[in-house]
Protein backbone atom coordinates (compact mmCIF):
# COMPACT_ATOMS: atom_id res chain seq x y z
CA UNK A 1 0.00 0.00 0.00
CA UNK A 2 1.41 3.37 -1.04
CA UNK A 3 1.10 5.71 1.97
CA UNK A 4 3.89 8.27 1.59
CA UNK A 5 5.75 10.25 -1.04
CA UNK A 6 8.75 8.04 -0.31
CA UNK A 7 6.57 5.15 -1.54
CA UNK A 8 5.56 7.16 -4.61
CA UNK A 9 9.17 7.96 -5.47
CA UNK A 10 10.18 4.33 -4.94
CA UNK A 11 7.42 3.24 -7.30
CA UNK A 12 8.64 5.56 -10.06
CA UNK A 13 12.00 3.80 -9.97
CA UNK A 14 10.33 0.58 -11.13
CA UNK A 15 9.19 2.11 -14.42
CA UNK A 16 10.79 3.68 -17.47
CA UNK A 17 12.27 7.12 -16.85
CA UNK A 18 9.94 9.87 -18.06
CA UNK A 19 10.90 13.15 -19.69
CA UNK A 20 9.49 16.42 -18.40
CA UNK A 21 9.47 19.56 -20.57
CA UNK A 22 9.89 22.63 -18.37
CA UNK A 23 8.50 25.97 -19.53
CA UNK A 24 10.56 29.03 -18.52
CA UNK A 25 12.96 26.82 -16.60
CA UNK A 26 15.06 29.68 -15.18
CA UNK A 27 13.69 29.14 -11.67
CA UNK A 28 15.81 28.00 -8.72
CA UNK A 29 13.24 25.74 -7.01
CA UNK A 30 12.23 24.17 -10.32
CA UNK A 31 15.83 23.38 -11.25
CA UNK A 32 16.50 22.04 -7.74
CA UNK A 33 13.49 19.75 -8.16
CA UNK A 34 14.61 18.62 -11.61
CA UNK A 35 18.12 17.97 -10.29
CA UNK A 36 16.80 15.88 -7.38
CA UNK A 37 14.34 14.00 -9.61
CA UNK A 38 17.09 13.21 -12.09
CA UNK A 39 19.45 11.98 -9.34
CA UNK A 40 16.71 9.71 -8.00
CA UNK A 41 15.94 8.24 -11.40
CA UNK A 42 12.45 9.71 -11.60
CA UNK A 43 12.84 11.66 -14.82
CA UNK A 44 15.05 13.43 -17.30
CA UNK A 45 14.23 16.89 -18.59
CA UNK A 46 14.19 19.25 -21.52
CA UNK A 47 14.59 22.80 -20.26
CA UNK A 48 12.97 25.56 -22.30
CA UNK A 49 13.89 29.09 -21.27
CA UNK A 50 16.64 31.64 -20.93
CA UNK A 51 19.74 29.50 -21.41
CA UNK A 52 22.09 31.99 -19.76
CA UNK A 53 19.95 32.27 -16.62
CA UNK A 54 19.40 28.50 -16.50
CA UNK A 55 23.15 27.98 -16.65
CA UNK A 56 23.82 30.50 -13.88
CA UNK A 57 21.22 28.96 -11.55
CA UNK A 58 22.48 25.45 -12.31
CA UNK A 59 26.01 26.54 -11.41
CA UNK A 60 24.78 28.06 -8.13
CA UNK A 61 22.98 24.85 -7.09
CA UNK A 62 25.63 22.43 -8.44
CA UNK A 63 23.31 20.97 -11.08
CA UNK A 64 25.32 19.32 -13.86
CA UNK A 65 23.56 20.12 -17.16
CA UNK A 66 25.77 18.04 -19.44
CA UNK A 67 23.04 15.44 -20.17
CA UNK A 68 20.19 17.96 -20.22
CA UNK A 69 18.77 19.40 -23.44
CA UNK A 70 18.22 23.16 -23.27
CA UNK A 71 16.10 25.09 -25.76
CA UNK A 72 16.96 28.78 -25.56
CA UNK A 73 13.79 30.90 -25.46
CA UNK A 74 13.80 34.04 -23.35
CA UNK A 75 10.11 34.87 -23.79
CA UNK A 76 8.12 32.93 -21.11
CA UNK A 77 4.96 32.67 -23.24
CA UNK A 78 6.88 31.30 -26.21
CA UNK A 79 8.80 28.99 -23.89
CA UNK A 80 5.47 27.62 -22.65
CA UNK A 81 4.30 26.96 -26.20
CA UNK A 82 7.54 25.18 -27.06
CA UNK A 83 7.41 23.05 -23.89
CA UNK A 84 3.82 21.99 -24.55
CA UNK A 85 4.65 21.26 -28.19
CA UNK A 86 7.38 18.86 -27.04
CA UNK A 87 4.73 16.83 -25.23
CA UNK A 88 2.30 16.98 -28.16
CA UNK A 89 5.06 15.76 -30.47
CA UNK A 90 5.88 12.82 -28.18
CA UNK A 91 9.32 14.15 -27.23
CA UNK A 92 8.32 14.57 -23.58
CA UNK A 93 5.84 12.79 -21.31
CA UNK A 94 4.70 15.71 -19.17
CA UNK A 95 5.03 19.48 -18.93
CA UNK A 96 5.96 21.65 -15.97
CA UNK A 97 5.44 25.34 -15.25
CA UNK A 98 8.57 27.29 -14.40
CA UNK A 99 8.99 31.06 -14.05
CA UNK A 100 5.92 32.00 -16.06
CA UNK A 101 2.48 33.28 -15.11
CA UNK A 102 -0.21 30.64 -14.76
CA UNK A 103 -2.46 32.31 -17.34
CA UNK A 104 0.29 32.36 -19.99
CA UNK A 105 1.25 28.78 -19.21
CA UNK A 106 -2.34 27.54 -19.42
CA UNK A 107 -2.87 29.33 -22.73
CA UNK A 108 -0.20 27.06 -24.13
CA UNK A 109 -1.71 23.95 -22.50
CA UNK A 110 -5.11 24.86 -24.00
CA UNK A 111 -3.81 25.91 -27.42
CA UNK A 112 -6.03 24.39 -30.13
CA UNK A 113 -3.14 23.39 -32.37
CA UNK A 114 -0.42 22.09 -30.06
CA UNK A 115 -2.17 22.00 -26.66
CA UNK A 116 -3.12 19.06 -24.46
CA UNK A 117 -6.91 19.28 -24.62
CA UNK A 118 -8.82 15.98 -24.65
CA UNK A 119 -12.41 17.22 -24.52
CA UNK A 120 -12.60 16.19 -20.84
CA UNK A 121 -12.78 18.58 -17.94
CA UNK A 122 -9.39 19.52 -16.55
CA UNK A 123 -9.00 19.50 -12.79
CA UNK A 124 -6.29 19.79 -10.18
CA UNK A 125 -5.43 16.99 -7.79
CA UNK A 126 -3.33 17.81 -4.72
CA UNK A 127 -1.85 14.92 -2.76
CA UNK A 128 -0.96 15.35 0.90
CA UNK A 129 1.05 13.19 3.28
CA UNK A 130 0.23 14.47 6.74
CA UNK A 131 1.40 13.07 10.10
CA UNK A 132 -1.94 12.34 11.77
CA UNK A 133 -3.44 10.46 8.81
CA UNK A 134 -2.18 6.97 7.97
CA UNK A 135 -2.70 7.34 4.21
CA UNK A 136 -2.29 9.82 1.40
CA UNK A 137 -5.10 12.35 0.95
CA UNK A 138 -6.14 13.42 -2.54
CA UNK A 139 -7.78 16.88 -2.52
CA UNK A 140 -9.72 18.05 -5.53
CA UNK A 141 -10.33 20.61 -6.90
CA UNK A 142 -8.36 23.20 -4.95
CA UNK A 143 -7.00 25.30 -7.79
CA UNK A 144 -8.80 25.13 -11.11
CA UNK A 145 -12.59 24.65 -11.15
CA UNK A 146 -14.43 27.27 -9.12
CA UNK A 147 -18.02 26.12 -8.57
CA UNK A 148 -18.43 22.71 -10.22
CA UNK A 149 -21.93 21.45 -10.96
CA UNK A 150 -22.95 17.80 -10.67
CA UNK A 151 -21.67 16.80 -14.10
CA UNK A 152 -18.38 18.57 -13.51
CA UNK A 153 -18.02 16.87 -10.13
CA UNK A 154 -18.38 13.50 -11.84
CA UNK A 155 -15.49 14.37 -14.15
CA UNK A 156 -13.41 15.75 -11.27
CA UNK A 157 -13.91 12.47 -9.38
CA UNK A 158 -12.96 10.44 -12.46
CA UNK A 159 -9.76 12.47 -12.84
CA UNK A 160 -8.83 12.05 -9.18
CA UNK A 161 -9.58 8.35 -9.25
CA UNK A 162 -7.16 7.90 -12.16
CA UNK A 163 -4.44 9.63 -10.15
CA UNK A 164 -5.14 7.53 -7.04
CA UNK A 165 -5.08 4.30 -9.06
CA UNK A 166 -1.81 5.34 -10.74
CA UNK A 167 -0.32 5.87 -7.28
CA UNK A 168 -1.41 2.38 -6.24
CA UNK A 169 -4.81 2.66 -4.54
CA UNK A 170 -6.89 -0.02 -6.26
CA UNK A 171 -10.38 1.15 -5.23
CA UNK A 172 -10.18 4.72 -3.89
CA UNK A 173 -12.77 5.84 -1.35
CA UNK A 174 -14.29 9.20 -2.27
CA UNK A 175 -15.93 11.58 0.21
CA UNK A 176 -17.90 14.54 -1.20
CA UNK A 177 -17.18 17.08 1.54
CA UNK A 178 -19.99 19.24 2.89
CA UNK A 179 -20.69 21.26 6.03
CA UNK A 180 -23.03 18.54 7.31
CA UNK A 181 -23.53 14.82 6.79
CA UNK A 182 -27.25 14.91 5.99
CA UNK A 183 -29.00 15.94 2.78
CA UNK A 184 -30.40 19.44 3.00
CA UNK A 185 -32.23 20.73 -0.13
CA UNK A 186 -31.07 24.25 0.73
CA UNK A 187 -27.42 23.14 0.58
CA UNK A 188 -26.67 22.13 -3.01
CA UNK A 189 -23.40 20.42 -2.10
CA UNK A 190 -25.28 17.89 0.05
CA UNK A 191 -27.76 17.17 -2.75
CA UNK A 192 -24.89 16.68 -5.22
CA UNK A 193 -23.11 14.40 -2.75
CA UNK A 194 -26.16 12.17 -2.39
CA UNK A 195 -26.60 12.00 -6.17
CA UNK A 196 -22.92 11.15 -6.69
CA UNK A 197 -23.23 8.35 -4.14
CA UNK A 198 -26.28 6.93 -5.91
CA UNK A 199 -24.61 7.22 -9.33
CA UNK A 200 -21.66 5.27 -7.96
CA UNK A 201 -23.98 2.65 -6.47
CA UNK A 202 -25.60 2.17 -9.89
CA UNK A 203 -22.29 1.90 -11.72
CA UNK A 204 -22.39 5.31 -13.39
CA UNK A 205 -19.14 6.30 -11.66
CA UNK A 206 -16.71 3.40 -11.64
CA UNK A 207 -13.48 2.22 -10.02
CA UNK A 208 -14.16 3.85 -6.65
CA UNK A 209 -16.52 3.90 -3.68
CA UNK A 210 -18.40 7.15 -3.05
CA UNK A 211 -20.38 8.03 0.05
CA UNK A 212 -21.71 11.41 1.08
CA UNK A 213 -22.50 13.95 2.13
CA UNK A 214 -19.76 13.80 4.75
CA UNK A 215 -18.38 16.58 6.87
CA UNK A 216 -14.58 16.68 6.94
CA UNK A 217 -14.32 15.15 10.45
CA UNK A 218 -16.45 12.18 9.44
CA UNK A 219 -14.47 11.66 6.25
CA UNK A 220 -11.13 11.54 8.07
CA UNK A 221 -11.88 10.18 11.54
CA UNK A 222 -13.35 6.74 12.31
CA UNK A 223 -14.07 7.94 15.85
CA UNK A 224 -16.00 10.99 14.63
CA UNK A 225 -18.02 8.86 12.21
CA UNK A 226 -18.84 6.30 14.91
CA UNK A 227 -19.84 9.05 17.36
CA UNK A 228 -22.36 10.33 14.83
CA UNK A 229 -23.58 6.82 14.02
CA UNK A 230 -22.40 6.90 10.41
CA UNK A 231 -22.05 3.40 9.00
CA UNK A 232 -20.06 3.69 5.78
CA UNK A 233 -17.13 2.18 3.90
CA UNK A 234 -15.85 5.70 3.27
CA UNK A 235 -16.42 7.53 6.57
CA UNK A 236 -13.13 7.64 8.46
CA UNK A 237 -11.26 6.06 5.54
CA UNK A 238 -11.60 8.58 2.69
CA UNK A 239 -8.76 8.73 0.17
CA UNK A 240 -10.21 11.39 -2.13
CA UNK A 241 -11.79 14.53 -0.67
CA UNK A 242 -14.07 16.15 -3.24
CA UNK A 243 -14.26 19.78 -2.19
CA UNK A 244 -17.55 21.63 -2.87
CA UNK A 245 -15.92 24.81 -4.22
CA UNK A 246 -12.57 26.41 -4.91
CA UNK A 247 -12.81 28.44 -1.69
CA UNK A 248 -13.22 25.32 0.44
CA UNK A 249 -10.47 23.56 -1.47
CA UNK A 250 -8.07 26.49 -1.29
CA UNK A 251 -8.61 26.91 2.45
CA UNK A 252 -8.14 23.18 3.05
CA UNK A 253 -4.98 23.08 0.94
CA UNK A 254 -3.34 26.08 2.59
CA UNK A 255 -4.37 25.06 6.08
CA UNK A 256 -2.66 21.69 5.64
CA UNK A 257 0.36 23.33 4.01
CA UNK A 258 0.90 26.06 6.60
CA UNK A 259 -0.31 24.59 9.92
CA UNK A 260 0.83 20.96 9.71
CA UNK A 261 4.06 19.15 8.94
CA UNK A 262 2.61 17.97 5.66
CA UNK A 263 4.38 16.95 2.49
CA UNK A 264 2.53 17.54 -0.76
CA UNK A 265 2.51 17.51 -4.53
CA UNK A 266 -0.06 18.24 -7.20
CA UNK A 267 -0.85 18.00 -10.88
CA UNK A 268 -3.43 19.09 -13.42
CA UNK A 269 -5.19 16.17 -15.13
CA UNK A 270 -7.92 15.65 -17.70
CA UNK A 271 -5.24 16.50 -20.27
CA UNK A 272 -3.51 14.19 -22.75
CA UNK A 273 -0.42 14.28 -20.48
CA UNK A 274 0.10 15.34 -16.86
CA UNK A 275 0.62 19.05 -16.25
CA UNK A 276 2.75 20.07 -13.26
CA UNK A 277 1.14 23.32 -12.17
CA UNK A 278 2.83 24.25 -8.90
CA UNK A 279 2.96 27.71 -7.39
CA UNK A 280 6.10 29.77 -7.77
CA UNK A 281 6.12 29.90 -3.96
CA UNK A 282 6.17 26.10 -3.59
CA UNK A 283 9.34 24.50 -2.26
CA UNK A 284 11.57 22.42 -4.49
CA UNK A 285 10.44 19.36 -2.50
CA UNK A 286 6.80 20.00 -3.39
CA UNK A 287 7.83 20.44 -7.01
CA UNK A 288 9.83 17.20 -6.97
CA UNK A 289 6.91 15.32 -5.39
CA UNK A 290 4.71 16.69 -8.16
CA UNK A 291 7.15 15.43 -10.79
CA UNK A 292 7.09 11.95 -9.23
CA UNK A 293 3.28 12.01 -9.13
CA UNK A 294 3.13 13.08 -12.78
CA UNK A 295 5.57 10.34 -13.78
CA UNK A 296 3.26 7.67 -12.33
CA UNK A 297 0.19 9.19 -14.01
CA UNK A 298 2.06 9.44 -17.34
CA UNK A 299 2.76 5.70 -17.15
CA UNK A 300 -0.87 4.85 -16.40
CA UNK A 301 -2.66 7.33 -18.68
TrEMBL record:
Superkingdom to which the source organism belongs: Bacteria
UniProt keywords, alphabetically: Acyltransferase, Transferase
Any Pfam family hit: PTA_PTB
Domain Phosphate acetyl/butaryl transferase: 5-75, 78-295
SUPFAM superfamilies, per database record: Isocitrate/Isopropylmalate dehydrogenase-like
Entry's transmembrane regions: none
InterPro entries referenced in this protein's UniProt entry, alphabetically: P_Ac_Bu_trans, Phos_Acetyltrans/Butyryltrans, Phosphate_butyryltransferase, PTA_PTB
One GO molecular-function entry: phosphate butyryltransferase activity
Gene Ontology biological process: butyrate metabolic process
Family per similarity comment: Belongs to the phosphate acetyltransferase and butyryltransferase family.
Identification of the protein by name: Phosphate butyryltransferase
Lineage: Bacteria, Bacillati, Bacillota, Clostridia, Eubacteriales
Amino acid sequence: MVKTFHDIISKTKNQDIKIVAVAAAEDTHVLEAISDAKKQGICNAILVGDEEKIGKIAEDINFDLKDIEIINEKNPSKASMKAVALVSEGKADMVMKGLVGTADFLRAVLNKEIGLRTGSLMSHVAVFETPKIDRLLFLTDCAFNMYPDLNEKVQIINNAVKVAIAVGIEIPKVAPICAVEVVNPKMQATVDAAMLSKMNERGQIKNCIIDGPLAIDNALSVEAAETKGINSEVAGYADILLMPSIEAGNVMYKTLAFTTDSVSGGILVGTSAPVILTSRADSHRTKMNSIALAALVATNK
